[in-house]
Amino acid sequence: MTVIPGAPMRRPEGQVGGNLPLIDSLLFIITLFFLFSGIAFGAAVGTVKGSGDVIKFATKTFAGLGGMVLMFLMISQFIAYFNYTNLPTVIAVNLAGILQNLAIGPLPLLILMTIVIVLLDFIMPGSVPKWAIFAPIFVPLFIRLGVEPQSVLAAYRIGDAPVNPITPLMVYLPFILTIAQRYDRKAGIGTLIALMLPYTVIIAVVWIILLSIWF
């Protein structure tokens, strides 16, 4: 469906750039794959005997997401108001200015930048907004110190990743919590953060050590 000329999932002739129709439809294709797999499994074990059973199970699944949708609403409002105050940007710019004025070598500065990104990720989990703030400041600074931009980006990504599972501002946290509650009905955000905290610390420390060795 993508190889033969004129196939429905193939990029139209003459189109330059943009996603393939296959990529644009990937979410729907994956959904259909799991839907048909679930129906086939249910029919094989006898839990799905007709279209009514399919609708019943689908309704049950979406009903279980009600709490997550409500939590998404609450968190999205908090994030919107928090960003409206411009506090994340002010904090990020001030921290970047402090690091820029430190007269230390490239490796300690890289490590300090990584630690700052780790701390900043609690209030600004999005990777693109932080990079948009830090890149114009640190890329030229590190180039003057003889450090390539890709090395700066590697250090940034190391700092940007570990905190994501424990920051309440991460948009995926309600979904992770919903999955966790399937195994522990009493699980809350505190339970999830306490569970993931050791992994966050270990990953951050090990990656910073690996960065230092690699650099």
Could you explain how this protein is built, in words?
The protein is mostly helical and about 220 residues long. Helices cover about 70% and strands about 0% of the residues. The radius of gyration is 23 Å and the shape is extended. The two termini are about 45 Å apart.
Short note summarizing the structure:
By secondary structure, the protein is mostly helical. The chain has two domains: 1-63, no CATH class; 66-214, no CATH class.
Write a concise keyword list for the protein shown above.
70% helix; single chain; 215 residues; mainly alpha
Q: Which consecutive residue ranges, at least 5 long each, have pLDDT under 50?
A: none
Number of DSSP helical runs? 10
Residue share in helices? Answer: 55-70%
What value does the average pLDDT take? Answer: 82
Largest sheet: none
Number of domains: 2
- H/E series, N to C? HHHHHHHHHH
Separation, N- and C-terminal Cα atoms: 45 Å
Q: What's the total number of strands?
A: 0
What is the C-alpha radius of gyration, as a whole number of Å?
23 Å
Strand content is: under 5%
Structural class by secondary-structure content: mainly alpha
The backbone outline, from C-alpha atoms, is extended
